[in-house]
Amino acid sequence: MSKDQHIDFIKIQNNSITAAEGLLFQTEKQIDPFKFLGDAYKFFGITYPKFFKMDGLSKAGLIAAELLSEKVSIEKNTGLIFSNSSSSLDTDLRFQDSMKSFASPSVFVYTLPNIVLGEISIRHQIQSENAFFISEKFDPALILDYAEIQLKNSACENVLCGWLNLHNNEYDVFLWHVAGLEDLQSQRGQLLKIYATTHE
Amino acid sequence: MRQVFLKSDSIISPMGFGSGTNLQQIRLQQSALKLQKPTSKYPSGYYAGILDNDIIDHSFSLIGNCKNYSKLEKMLILAINDVVIKESIDFEHTALVIATTKGNIDLLNSDAFTKERVELWKMAQVVADFFEFQQKPIVVSNACISGGLAIKTAADFIKYGKFDSAIVAAGDLVSDFVLSGFQSFQAMSELACKPFDARRNGISLGEAAAAVYLDTKPSEDTEIEFIHAVTTNDANHISGPSRDGEGLYQAISRLKLFTGISSEEIDFISAHGTATVYNDEMEALAFSRSQLDHVPLHSLKGYLGHTLGASALIESIMLKHGMLNNEMLISKNFENLGTSVPLNITTEVSQKELGTALKTASGFGGCNIAMLFEKTEAHE
User: Fold this and answer.
1) Is residue B229 domain-shared with residue B206, that is, in the same domain?
2) For B334-343, how does the pLDDT look when each residue is reduced to its tens digit (9 = 90+)?
3) Which pLDDT belongs to residue A4?
4) Where would I find the H helices in chain A?
5) Do A118 and B238 touch (CB under 8 A)?
């Protein structure tokens, strides 16, 4: 796996957070995934009071971006190109539930998948390209192809890419950084393998 | 670099089926927005543009089995079908890019279809399968810039050769879900929305679907070319626009930088203009900072309401027709300027050579898009 080491990524699956160098944080599988994210937030010493107001997708995205930002440059001209399968369905169901009594505006605002791009942009003061795609399964070619064009167009200088899904109380998060065009080409063909590798 | 042209298009809305019908209704100053029944938050009722199921089924029954498709799927299929019958589409290679914010959200907790149907990728696949598109559809869901971002996505991919042509479609519904949400924000207008007006007081929701065919082959006629688009994030607030219009200003500035176009060369602006107090003020500041305050501008929200993920596609299609006809459509429900800086809002039908035009949109999550379209004169 040494060939894969140069891809900076953060993966959140099965109540564990892993990076290229290995396991970063883990709790028992039985722990509620939302509590797991809260525990991770505390464990990594992240201080961002707004965290607790966010929905699940934004919390997971924020933690993953935070951990990546310690290793790579995430700045004003970092493009954010994300994708998932279930859009904001988890929060949609919560909002639908709240409609029975008091429809909550603070829940409603999270019923869009791209809100996490806004949260990450606020946290890291990014003002660059945003795109959120929905595909049945993780499709790195779609994300990389779009990222490649944005880099070639000088629309952004580097890209934070992500697969960020929350469905049936299960997180499937894979964020990675593309430093530039050369980096991007070297990642082709590797991402699915890294995404599928479990660190147990 | 390959050129990308906006070919045949269609709009399926409460004002009618087809771009021509919608354009005609706009010229006649008609509106899809009708007074709806009162709710606890809106005791005097509110305005929305809602498409009657029977009208959809009347048209859809000619091409498919109404029972097998959701309301939004039928609207999208009707829009795409309208394009397909005017173009010779190669379904093996042509891409389908679909924009939506909430898709089949009306099916949440419904037993009418399988649970999977509420997933946006599934809805897109159902629509793609109707026409037997061989490529997996690409779904863009990026709040209220989705329809514009879908054009950008398709055009970017065409320019760089991922595919040669695409149908871009977009649609969203006025669902109880979305109504409750905007009501909870108290973001809805009791009157039909009044973009950029001094008495504007919120949005009116509308439902619609639209489609446009993009390809690289210039025709012999005058046509509209997609030049470039830029997105930015405000990095300011997830549910409110930046107070100084910085994100949209950045999008417009970068678009000008990348295309080499100057503010003086922009003949017309199709704005987002949702008619919330803050959005329209934010846009006005961004246009003013971009030295575009003199450029004729409209918002079409007074006709169709805010059609969410479909709006930027519908407005781009209308912009295309406006450019081809050198016609500046009236910004409906505008009376007195209600922004802190001047804007040149179209209040009467007027003709002007429209060679270059800007389309902008902004949405929740702090996203903005600025798109540039140019007229390519007829070849000899």
Assistant:
1) no
2) 999 999 999 9
3) 47
4) 33-43, 56-69, 89-99, 105-108, 115-124, 140-152, 181-187, 191-196
5) yes
